[in-house]
Amino acid sequence: MKTRATFFRKTKDSLMRAFSGFATSMALVLMAWVIFTIVREGHSSISAELFLNASKPFGEVGGGIANALLGTVMITAGAAALALPPALAAGIWLAEFGKDSLLARAARFTVNVMMGVPSVIVGLFAYGVLVTTTGHFSGFAGSFSLAILMFPVVVRTTEDQFSGIGDALRESLLALGASRARSTLTVIWSAARSGVVTGVLLAVARVSGETAPLLFTALFADTWPTSYFSGPTPSAPVLITSYTMDSPFESMHRIGWSAALTMAFILLAVNITARYFGAKRAAKRK
Amino acid sequence: MQKKKYKIETKRLNFFYGDHQALFDNDLSIEANKITAVIGPSGCGKSTHLRVYNRIFELHRGQRAEGEVFIDGKDILDPGIDLLDLRRRVGMIFQKPTPFPMSVFDNVAYPIRLHFKASQKEIAERVENALRGAALWDEVKDKLRESGQALSGGQQQRLCIARAIAAEPEILLMDEPTSAIDPVGTLKIEELMDRLRERFTIVIVTHNMQQASRISDTTAFFYKGSIVEVGPTKLIFTNPRNKQTEDYVSGRFG
Q1: A contact residues 93-152, partner B, Cβ 8 Å cutoff
Q2: B59/A176 Cβ within 8 A
Q3: For residue B1, is it within any domain?
Q4: Which of A2, B47, B176, B202 is the most buried (most CB within 10 A)?
Q5: How many domains, in total, are found in chain B?
Q6: Which of A82, A83, A68 is nearest to A263 (CA)?
Q7: Confidence at residue B254, expressed as pLDDT on a 0 to 100 scale
Q8: What's this model's pTM, rounded to 2 decimal places?
């Protein structure tokens, strides 16, 4: 039998490969474009003063973003403190004990729904329960709203990491006479830890850039964040939004871009750290 | 003739995976300080049977055992039994070595810290004894602080044996302990088992009939969830009473 000409198949193959390669490189191009733009717009106002001084009221020349960066750290840390303990516990419970029980399936469904709730709605909710009731905006209310966004992500990532550990390890722990709780909290945890840390870091990085919920809760202040529990608290995302969108002053636009540049680099660093943990785990599994 | 004293006596053991019955009226008596091999084709219930002895199957939803399994005269299927103590007394080695993600030393110290009140010095002594008992000491004595997962497959399996015997069990269950190990590692583990029989009652599930004939005193042949024949290993391999046993040990099926 005569073989078919391979010319068309080869051509199709190379076209297909060229297209996929092009599409893949789009991801890199987009990222480079974003970074290039914020560096171009933001680099001119980067200075030591920017990172040492608090911001100044609208219209006044000068001022920094240190208060907003510190506020973001506080609000994000507060969110992590609120969300992580219950989220880790829930994720572990789902993977180790809940499994296919009714409660576990209901919780898993809820967590999935929570992940899709727009942050603006979460912000409005926090405004309703923590701002209108207390009569003041606060950094804590901001933490609360970010915690709600962080919670489902951490539950999911924790459950995934624990479920990824084979039953062989669980069985060999039980076979030694260890209780479920003890084996989970010692050996299973240490096997899952680096993956969980990666997931947590990514979740923290993700919510630290959220703006909408903070507009309803922490608002902003041109002061150092000294009243986390009782008053408006500055944050980098809100500073970026209001300086670039709400201000007529070019000097403020520049500061806004610089803050964006700073946030981008901090988040990039967190992401790389998280990937590093992930890569270390992958290497260990080999 | 004096009645033999058995370490494990299984009576009318039935086992279910949900609605599916996997073991049918298993009766099996296992002598102390002997190696009993459990053989049979894949899916015949060998491992399922073994996993009843330490009730490890209970980790999984929907699995249940009915009947009686006496260990030293006490029914271990009794819900009131102290499960953690049962599992200390009945150690288990699995098909795939499962070193914990910690150092060689900590792997072996894990059951010691779990079950005994021991000083650091006593723990160190017991770890050494267990590693010597598993014929691993000479190979790892200079890398006790290194990860247990960095050892070779055969070494990892002996590490798991050391870890199991560190709990000072009376019975060792081995579920195809060498099927994932290379021939040299397998030979070492078989030599080791020969020494371990002095201290422990060993029940080993194996696919490898040469292995069963080399190391065991008694052999039980399983087929489709039932125990077809039990007897001295020599007899089972040279002169079985049952036709199915004969076909299996001579390699005609399975």
Answers
A1: 99-100
A2: no
A3: no
A4: B202
A5: 1
A6: A68
A7: 59
A8: 0.87
